[in-house]
Structure formats: structure tokens, C-alpha cells
Design a protein that fits this description.
about 140 residues, mainly beta, Immunoglobulin-like, 8-stranded mixed β-sheet, 1 helix, signal
Length: about 140
């Protein structure tokens, strides 16, 4: 398995383990730490691609930009990959792609949540630390 699928599985596992950042403690973002979501996502051949920008400061553990999407308020969010973040205080682009079951998502309005999450070593445990969260309505388009 290549590194990108492994990172996506790891970021997705963190999202599923903690539900979403809405269920976890709010991100303790410094003013310089941000994550944005592009207003359009793409859906094609059973895959969804979401993107945006992020900026974060150095962490003590590996840092990822994870994302999830849902199309109705009552639906469970679907994790859509994870991107390893470079936390150097500069703005970077992120793009996550993940597969979805047939009929789960379709072109149209959706709600995306993007999170910068750090996996911080704490003794013998590794715990998530949320740097920034963005929740935004987007349009999923074919192609």
C-alpha cells in the first residue's frame, strides 16, 4: 500500500474514532492556523475529491488535513481521505480523494468539514489535537 492511502486511512480513522470535530473539543487554533474548503468538490467514478488551503504552526507529532462530507443533516459524515500537512506557518493547498459507495453521494449541495489534526504523543498514547476546523456548504459536481 502506498503512503497516500495509508495516510487517508489514518486520517479517516481519527475522524471516525472521534466522530467529527463537532463531537470533539473545539480546535484551539492560533490566529495563524487556518483551514479553508473550496466551494466546489468533484464526484466521479465512485470517488469524491475535496480541496482547499491550510496554514499551521509546527507540531510535536504528525499533522494531517482530514475531511468529511454529507448531503443531509441526518446522514453520517463520510470520511474523504487525509493529506499530510507541512506546518511551517505558510499557506499550502490540500486535496483529499476518497471512494464512496454507489448512491451514497450525488452531484448537488453538500456539507464539508475539514480539520487540521495532529497526532500528539502523550506518554504511551497518541492523542489527537485539533488545530483548526472549517465547516462549509459546497457543491459537488460531476467530473
Amino acid at each position: 500500500m502506498s503512503a497516500n492511502p495509508v495516510l487517508g486511512v489514518l486520517a479517516g480513522a481519527v475522524t471516525l474514532l472521534f466522530g467529527s470535530a463537532a463531537a470533539a473539543p473545539e480546535a484551539s487554533a492560533a490566529p495563524s492556523e487556518t483551514v479553508t474548503v473550496d466551494s466546489v468538490g468533484r464526484i466521479a467514478d465512485g470517488f469524491v475529491t475535496l480541496s482547499g488551503t491550510y496554514r499551521c504552526d509546527a507540531g510535536t507529532g504528525p499533522v494531517y488535513v482530514s475531511s468529511s462530507v454529507r448531503q443531509s443533516p441526518s446522514a453520517d459524515p463520510r470520511p474523504i481521505g487525509g493529506t499530510r500537512a507541512v506546518c511551517d506557518g505558510k499557506e499550502h493547498r490540500w486535496e483529499n480523494t476518497g471512494s464512496v459507495s454507489a448512491g451514497t453521494l450525488k452531484a448537488g449541495p453538500a456539507h464539508v468539514e475539514a480539520t487540521i489534526v495532529e497526532l500528539r504523543p502523550t506518554g504511551i498514547l497518541v492523542l489527537p489535537h485539533f488545530h483548526a476546523v472549517q465547516r462549509q456548504d459546497v457543491a459537488l459536481v460531476q467530473g
